[in-house]
Amino acid sequence: MKLNIRKIKSQLSEEARKEARIRLRIKIVTIGVGIVFIVTLARAVKLHCFKDDNLGWVASKQYNAKIPQSSRRGKILDRAGRELATSLPVPSVYADPKSVSLTDDERKTLASLLKMDEKELNQKLKIPRRFVWLKRMVDSSVIEAIKGMQGIYYVEESRRFYPNGELASHILGAVGMESDALAGIELANDRFLGSKKHDAVFKRDARGKFYFAPVAYNEQDDVDDVILTIDKQIQFVTENALEKAATAANARGGTAVVMDVKNGAILAMANSPSFDPNNYSKYPQDTWRNRAIADSIEPGSTFKTLIISSALDNGSVTPEDQFNCEGGAITIGRATLHDSHAHGTLSVRDIIKVSSNIGAYKVAREIGKEKLFEYLRKFGIGKRTGIDYPGEVGGIVRNPETLQPVEFATIAFGQGISVTPIQMTAAFSAIANGGKLMRPYVIDRIVNNQGITIMRSIPMEVSEPISEATAKTVISMLEGVVGEGGTGTRAASKEYQVAGKTGTAQKVTEGSGHYAAGKYYASFIGIAPADAPRIVIFVGLDEPKGSYFGGSVSAPVFKEIAEATLKHLDVPSALSRVVVATQRQRTDSVDLPKDKKRFQKLSGGDFQVPDVRGITMRDVMEAVGQADVKIKVNGSGLATDQSPSPGGVIKEGETFKVSFKQPD
Amino acid sequence: MMDDNGTVVKRTHFDYPLIIVTAILVMIGVVMVYSSSAVLAMERTGDGYFYLKKEIVFALVGFIMLFVAAKVPYHWLKKMVYPILGFAMLMLVLSFIPGLKSSAGGASRWVRLGPVTFQPSEFAKFALVIFLAYSLEKKASRIKSFGIGFVSNAAVALVLIMMVVVQKDLGAAFMLATITALMMFVAGVRISYLVAMAVSSLPALYFLVAHVAYRRRRILAFLNPWSDRYGTGFQIIQSLVSFNEGGIFGRGLGEGQQKLFYLPEAHTDFIFSVLGEELGLIGVTLVIVLFAIFFWRAISIGLKAPDLFSRYLAFGLAIFIGVQALFNFCVVMGLLPTKGLVLPFISYGGSALTTFLIAAGVLLNISTYKCAKSE
């Protein structure tokens, strides 16, 4: 046998080639599989590490079913820590229709307890869900009665409660059924006031079964309290005075603002008509509006104050410069402007005092369009004040470039320009504050549940439109307005020296651009005390019927608010010594123990009324204390008359009427 | 010792990494089966440990069979090729017979023999690997011929594929086809034949998918699961939610939420999603890496194997376990359409687990033979 070496060799190399090919192909497959392993790892990293919103949403939705629950909110307090808005735990009754098993008697009882129609109740109990509200916010006595009813449960919800009713309602705003903020401070500060634990949830247990897990009221402690610059007492006085005047004048509405001139803090902000945030839905939405910041008005003659301040500061005029007031009529282009009373030659001081339109126009002409608008901008006219409250508007100021001469003339007396009450308040405060314009604010600070202040407002100077000297001069001129022969004599107080300016603006018919006959905005903006200003008060009445002059309808409101406010702020008055003496005398003679001057709580929500006669409004407020009654006051000074009479009984929510009179 | 070809073959020890990886995977599997099935078991049988107990028994039986397989020389399988293939086919046929078959998820995939139910599809894959290794070695010299190299092997595979397709088990069919294609590719079958086979199967694949409503929906759901969130897209979205909820560290063992209500087949086909939710990226990475190590060890056992049969056998088993694991990962992570494929060693199921462990045992046995020449 002969070995065929070549054949063996070729066979061997064939084997080797095959072997190499197999190894190569195995490696190709291995690399391919290896790549897929890496792809799966990359996919795993993507799925695990990058949160997918869609997937997260699916997950949260299937683990929990949310039921909106009215949750606790932080308190809103006035500057002295008195409650303006608070939350109360109130039971709400719900059913788990799948587990409901009630006898006919129980159904009847339940329907009557919940004040529901039995048909309606039965319908609700048939809804094929695990959760149905039967009645929200029920009396706590209901809870005892439903115990033992199978499938009927309750959860403690939070009810927003405004203990003072309508007081400061426009500032506070309101909250809806699901503790959703609707307006005002409630809305603007919802992230502080609201609890994040606001949803009752259905959770899944370890077996995947649903169970209902409401958030307990006490657990919702993640809320902050908002402390306002508002003073409950000043707000009370302001609202009362405004409401009284608006009613007397049969006005469409009204606004009053009290501002601390030193820092811009708003002490009171009142609007008429008002609403009760406890029952906000029963009031037309129009009444919710905070007119002080949300309404644009043509200011009228109060605006002259800004014109003359600017002209004085610019050196264009001096207080004693004389202007010819053209006998009450002047023709500019094709229009004729009138004064309400004919005047000859007047000094700048007298132009303000008697409120001459023609005089104001001539002063404005002295300073000139460009310069004047620059001053107005510095006074904050034409832009939002930046108040920490939602819904502010900026007013409308025409472009000076395109302004016709007659339009420039009307701006001099506050027509053809629109501003907000808060802008005018701030501008007057700048004059009262030595020429420095402060940003108005209503929130003093925000305190968290640990009592730690997490936000505090810092008074902010916006600009300095006029010098301190000019400001002093202007105030002295405004004192003339309330003095004899001025338009604002009814603002004059016996107790405090005040200064201010009246305004009676013709209103433009909405949409037409024409002035409406007989429709006016009557205002008075005042500074008190004039020698060392503490506050500026804006009072505006919208469309008063009968007497429509700012000096006749708004000035007295200013006086009432100013006197009460300054007294409350312990500003010594010219008469304070007399009042204190009188008070002391009376107190000594009556010699009542202090607790006698308090509302005594009786059973069933009744209160026994003390004798409040002879004490101040402030003391009356104190006597009422936390008793849940409304107070209606009349006049100012010391209490003279009360209803119910001393020792009488008043029910919760009823009105306690007190009349006040200045001691002689 | 010399084998038939005159190659010097040495015996050595088991491949330790392979057995360690296998043991870890089975342990992870037992734990995950308990975690994913406890609530279901409680509800179905009143015993939360029901599936855990059975899985532990399966694992013990499986490991005994693993050691037996590791001890029996792989050559014995050569002699047993046809009995094994015949048994696999018999089981597949039995699963059609009313009275013996048992359905799961719209597909009849189980055979009930007295107290034991047997799922034949994993065993069929195992049998196919043995058959192909045997056949491809036998025909090694004429592997490039169309009739002998290609058709004869493909025909056997096609019979098995047809049988599982009739059972609506498209996942198994896909896996059988992949095993066949890759083993034939490695053995040297002409690539053109393999491409032609793939192309010619497309019409059939299209027919199978497009004409069966639930498969068509599955494909559509895969392409855009959100289009039918509560219907066909439900399963895959729930699986993706599990991974997404797991994050890097997972919710913690037993803390998974998805298995409780939404993840279908949590303890079988979708057990990896439960693992993803409970053990997070850490656990998922561990399992993927363990399978990669397993695959790599199986391939290197094949490369060191003394003859073509054992080489093909090791390669086929590497594909059987490694690629099936990959397919399962891809399905549960939304990279492939959903189809019934269990995760080797980890998913619940007695016949599957024992089959995979026997396959691991065979690999271990091959690892004890070393071709001295290749050293």
Features:
heterodimer, A: 664 residues, alpha+beta, Beta-lactamase, seven-stranded mixed β-sheet, five-stranded antiparallel β-sheet, 20 helices, B: 375 residues, mainly alpha, three-stranded antiparallel β-sheet, two-stranded antiparallel ribbon
Blueprint (SSEs and pairs):
The complex is a heterodimer of chains A (664) and B (375).
Chain A: H1 5-49, H2 53-63, E1 65-68, E2 76-77, E3 83-95, H3 104-113, H4 118-125, E4 132-135, H5 140-146, E5 152-161, H6 169-172, E6 174-175, E7 181-183, H7 184-188, H8 190-193, E8 199-204, E9 210-213, E10 225-228, H9 232-248, E11 253-260, E12 266-272, H10 291-294, H11 304-314, E13 322-324, E14 329-332, E15 335-338, E16 345-347, H12 348-354, H13 357-367, H14 369-378, H15 405-412, H16 421-432, E17 437-438, E18 443-447, E19 453-456, E20 461-463, H17 468-482, E21 499-508, E22 515-528, E23 535-542, H18 550-568, H19 576-590, E24 600-601, E25 606-608, H20 617-624, E26 630-634, E27 638-643, E28 649-651, E29 655-661
Parallel strand pairs in A: 2-10, 26-29
Antiparallel strand pairs in A: 1-8, 2-3, 3-4, 3-5, 6-7, 8-9, 10-18, 11-12, 11-23, 13-16, 14-15, 17-20, 18-19, 21-22, 22-23, 24-25, 25-28, 27-29
Helix pairs in contact in A: 9-18, 11-13, 11-14, 11-17, 12-17, 13-15
Chain B: E1 9-11, H1 16-45, H2 50-71, H3 75-94, E2 101-104, E3 107-113, E4 116-118, H4 120-138, H5 146-166, H6 170-187, H7 191-210, H8 213-223, H9 234-246, H10 258-261, H11 271-304, H12 308-332, H13 350-367, E5 369-371
Helix pairs in contact in B: 1-2, 1-11, 2-13, 3-4, 4-5, 4-6, 4-12, 4-13, 5-6, 6-12, 9-11, 11-12, 11-13, 12-13
